[in-house]
Amino acid sequence: MADSIMYHEGSRRLQDQFHSRRISDRLEEKLTRTQFTPEDKAFIESVPYFFLATADAAGQPDCSYKGGMPGFVRVTGPSELAFPDYDGNGMFKSLGNILVNPGIGMLFIAMHGKPQRLRVNGQAIVSDEDPLLAETVGAQLIVRVSARAIFPNCPRYIPTMQLTEPSIYAPRSGCEAPEPAWKDFAELRDYVHPRQPTFKG
Predict the structure, then answer these.
(1) pLDDT digit of tens for each residue in the chain (201 aa)?
(2) Are 124 and 76 in contact (CB under 8 A)?
(3) Residue 24: alpha-carbon gap to chain centroid
(4) What is the DSSP secondary-structure string of the chain?
(5) Do residues 144 and 129 touch, judged by C-beta distance below 8 A?
(6) In the sheet that 141-153 helps form, which strands lie side by side, from edge to edge?
(7) Do 124 and 85 touch, CB atoms closer than 8 A?
(8) Which residues does residue 143 pair with via DSSP β-bridges, in sequence order?
(9) pTM for this one?
């Protein structure tokens, strides 16, 4: 399978069972890329959320939602993007996985307006010294991703939804984000970690 950046033996077994190897190869040939197009960049930098798949050193998977204001994910090079880590619950499930297993998958999806999906698979690093920290409001860490495969997906099963307003917790210049209510729950408040100092804009 060295000739494919998309498929492995498991994929090929099912493609052969369902007679879809030819279309799979065609989709990889025509749609899969290793560098972001201007359209990819515009889409990625317009979305207020994406989904991040990671796995630990033993291969146990985890999937999380990452959100912010449009532009919180930036395409920073031909095959590179970066996104901030904001104050959260302190478990560091996704970023902890990246430290021991840098392989990740990202799903960018628009379920409002024109449906659209873009997947990015690659290798990630986490840094508390990245220069983007000095200019990214609310970021306590920066994750940089080197893309191995960038490919769109058919949006036919995406429901039509409406985006009404951004989260009040999404960091933005000139606004102090409120603390989430769970940090004051009686069973948690004595255990909550302090917020890290971050760029305010």
Answers:
(1) 457 999 999 999 999 999 999 999 999 999 999 999 999 999 999 999 999 999 999 999 999 999 999 999 999 999 999 999 999 999 999 999 999 999 999 999 999 888 999 999 999 999 999 999 999 999 999 999 999 999 998 889 999 898 899 999 999 998 888 999 999 999 999 999 999 999 998
(2) no
(3) 24
(4) -TT-SS--HHHHHHHHHTT-HHHHHHHHHHH-BSS--HHHHHHHTT-SEEEEEEE-TT--EEEEEEE-STTSSEEEETTEEEEEEPS--S--HHHHHHHH--EEEEEEEE-BSS-EEEEEEEEEEEESS-GGGGGSTT-SEEEEEEEEEEEEE--TTPPPB------TTS--TT--PPPPGGGG-TTTTTTPPPPPP----
(5) no
(6) 61-67, 49-55, 103-110, 116-127, 141-153, 80-85, 74-77
(7) no
(8) 83, 126
(9) 0.92
Q: Are 40 and 118 in contact (CB under 8 A)?
A: yes
Instruction: Work out whether the CA dihedral 156, 161, 165, 170 comes out positive or negative.
Output: negative
Contact 120, 108 (CB under 8 A): yes
